[in-house]
Amino acid sequence: MEKSNINLRNAKNSDFEIIYQIKSKSIKPYIEEIWGWKEAYQREVHRNNFVALDTRIIVYKRQEIGYIVMEETVKEIYIENLMIKEEFQNLGIGNEVMGKIIDRAYSENKIIRLQVFKINTKAQRFYENLGFEKTSLNENHIVLEKKIQFK
Fold this sequence. Notes:
Number of helices: 4
Strand content: 25-35%
Oligomer: single chain
Number of domains: 1
CATH superfamily: Gcn5-related N-acetyltransferase (GNAT)
Number of strands: 7
Order of helices and strands: EHHEEEHEHEE
């Protein structure tokens, strides 16, 4: 994979539907298993929580194939969502996106925190391979954190 094929662009309000489609296909199996999937409810939750300013669209070879939602403070980058369409997973795209975030966290002296569903072992392995460590558990999620090692 050529790095030049991956770009992040700022989301717009008009990206609501594409982000919802990526999100629903990515997390539906986990939500179905934990709580059951109710389409109208999920769409309403997305409508209430979608903030274009916090969202970046992942573009690969001019296709919108994923997105990332981050919230930042002075000390932390919190990754709310990183979703990539299934057919584009395992191509190194997630690694490249996370690599950029890790580099920025290093340069800005920030930790990175996120959570994944306990039943999403694929995501757990992905983040653990990037050096994230489990820091806590709640009923349905594992919280992971990457403390940046400063030189």
